[in-house]
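Quick one:
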Amino acid sequence: MSPAKSDVRSAAKDASATSFLKMAQVLDCFTKARSRLSVGELVVLTGLPRTTVHRIVSSLREIGMLDQDGRRRDYRLGLKMFHYGSVVIGTLDVHRHAGPHLQQLNQLSGEIVHFHMFDGSQMACIEREVMSGNHMTTLTTIEAAPIYCTSVGKAFLAFQPEPLIRRICAEQGLVKHTANTITDMDRLFEVLADIRRQGYAIDDEENAVGVRCVGAPVRNAAGQVFAAVSVSGPTDRMPDRRLTGLAPVVIDTANRISEALAS
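Output:
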């Protein structure tokens, strides 16, 4: 191959990589708080030229990764993204590795058990174990949970670098869901320090009135926290002494899931 042809191919590869990076920039702009965005807003958020953004969103719309609101002309993530998310969950094989441990935790606690993974901005519920009468029900969902005011979220957040913590909180905003929700960053960092020391997190009616939870971090093969497991129940069944009593069991479950996922 002549040097000229080699240079042309190399330039084409670089251009393709740059295009993918720009597409990722556009997709990264969409969050739960910013679910619908106009081309103008995407230009501001990405810093890309308007013609580039318009070309990218048109291409993403054609392949179903973005949908457009006909009335407002705004864009939102398309159902193709849901398809990809479902495929990712399927390839993780969470049910085989984590399922038995979650079911055991559900049987021991008699309360609802959740397994959440960080999806880039929030905690996505991958599996939910519920005891109904004498029957256990396993639910798989992609329902998201806030990070700063849930036990699974704080159990994840406590073991992340400070820049990521600040970015997530800035994107979500420390919105007050209940009277107990932490809305001050300094206070949140104090709580996260306690979680790192004790190994578990508590949601004291911070996300929903009448619900208390205890959660613990789950690690991947590299030892990085990427998910969390929790037990939640109504306040009258989850006084302080029961939360602290369940904490070691939740931590043990999280550790066994970490070992299973790494094997």
